[in-house]
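Any chance you could type out some protein's one-letter sequence along with its backbone structure tokens so I can compare the two?
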Amino acid sequence: MSLTWDVSESTRLTDYDKTDEGFLFTRALTFHTMSIGQWQLTDENASEWYARIAFLERDLSETLIMASSNDAKIDPDRIVGKGDKRPAGLALIPNDVWRHVGLRTNSGYDTPRREWIRQVVARHNDYAKRWGTDERPIKQWTYAEVREKLAEYADVYLAYADGQVES
């Protein structure tokens, strides 16, 4: 089955999001739904979306915003938001998630946080054991470490969202 998405209920999207460059962020969020175990982005679960995505992108280096030869040239300084700065690798920022509230996909069901952490830790630590070397070790994560990181990233999103004013 093909992954489908719908942003018709995303009322915060801007003209920028409708450009080729802006669509890269919509596409990244859409594909992230499979790795974060969430299918519909709402105000109630946006901090969980951001926390899971931020952990994958910043701590496991699984960034999904990649420009191909068919994509627009990405200017990391041209972003939507109040002075937001993107980390290296064009990781998603709270503003990207906030703008896309209302996004829906057919990626399945919502995976509870406890189960999602268990899956991520098992998958990543298996990878670290297989591919890490003495010269290039790969960090292994514990359940508690991931839970703490998710709480930190959720707080970052909530602080950002609290500062936004609906027009």
Summary: The longest strand covers residues 5-6.
